[in-house]
Write a structure and sequence with these properties.
single chain; 77 residues; mainly alpha; 2 helices
Length: 77
């Protein structure tokens, strides 16, 4: 593990300390967890943007999925 020095606003440090205490964590553990969560969120956002871009660049054809219409259960039938 590597030690990293960061500059944070006093109010943010207080909020982190309060949250970490509620979760029975220390400041470092809370910050590591928050950074992991932020990276996961960023990765998800990038994958969603990639998917949107793919559909924009290669839109589906109007009948592309019609072969599956009879295979799917739609509600209370």
């Amino acid at each position: 593990m590597k030690t990293v020095q960061m500059t944070l606003d006093d109010d943010l440090v207080k909020s982190v300390d309060i949250a970490a205490k509620k979760l029975h964590m220390n400041r470092s553990a809370f910050t590591r967890s928050a950074l992991h969560d932020a990276l996961k969120k960023l990765n998800t956002k990038l994958l969603e943007q990639k998917q949107i871009s793919g559909y924009q660049n290669h839109p589906s054809k109007s009948n592309e999925f019609s072969v599956w219409e009879n295979e799917h259960v739609w509600g209370d039938k």
